[in-house]
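Service request form, structural biology core

Requester: graduate student, group of Dr. S.
Request type: structure prediction, single chain
Budget code: on file
Notes: please return the result as structure tokens.

Sequence provided:
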Amino acid sequence: MENYSLQVLLTQGLTILVLFLLILYLLRQRRIIRLEKRFQNFALISTFDEEKSIFDIIMAFFWRLIHRVSSILEKSVFLKKYGMRYDKFIKFEQKDEISGMDYIAIKTLIAFLFLICNLLTAMFQVVNVSFMSLLITFFLGFFLPDLFLQLEYQKKRKKVEEDLLKAIIVMNNSFKSGRNIMQAVEIVKNELDGPISDEFKKIYLDMTYGLSIEVVFERFYNRVKLEDARYITSSLSLLNKTGGNIVRVFGTIERSFFEKKKLKQEMQSLTSASLFVFRVLCVLPFLFIFFIYFLNPSYFEPVFATRLGHLFLGGTILLYTLYIFVIKKVLEVRI
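Core staff response, request fulfilled:
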């Protein structure tokens, strides 16, 4: 029995070591590719050099697999509609290479990878695997990428909100010089950089397809979900229907956005101390639990081993979630 446990332990250790080395190798190759792209503009590259790195070969195989899986999954009408939700995560430069269904394919492959890891762990530990455990593992792997996508999306929204005033100033100056809306959008996408430039590239592409101003900026609002974008959409829609001086309208929008940004910065400076206290209070219970568990691991056994403990744990989680929601709403300042 001791020899079997030793073999299982060695197998687990070797598996973890191989995965760790593989991750280190992929991270190193990713860093090398970033450095190559950084110095590519300053280097002389032969036009006949077709040598590919192992990382490029792996990534090419990965994306071929993703496209093949997505072509199978898109036969489902439900998954096809579900995949359209992920179009907002696609950058303008990737619009011809990646689709929303590719994200569904990646999520599905990660879910199956989680299942395989769960089965291997159960096999190494010689324990039975229940159907409910496999189901929870699959859904955990399927929805876990959404957390990272939402974090990236929130960073993008924040950056777009910060740079939207710059876009309005550029557009207003373009209108003052006699340019139309399409030319002003083109100037914004060329002059600015970052997520705001990416969004205005999509706006410019929609306008070249012949979509109306209202539809184009309505799609822009649906991608970023910002009230400032809704304000621009409503102003342009009203201006297009009733007529008016577009320079004066965008001048009003520019002043409104400037005052709003200034007021928001003042409110953030006033509420920064309260937000810090709120974050500390959110983390403090977990630190308290960690230190108690570290000093006495058996202290929380009644909570997980008894029915009353389960009820107490569920009520505590519910009250804690309600506390975070209420305090966050109280500290939230809408301008």
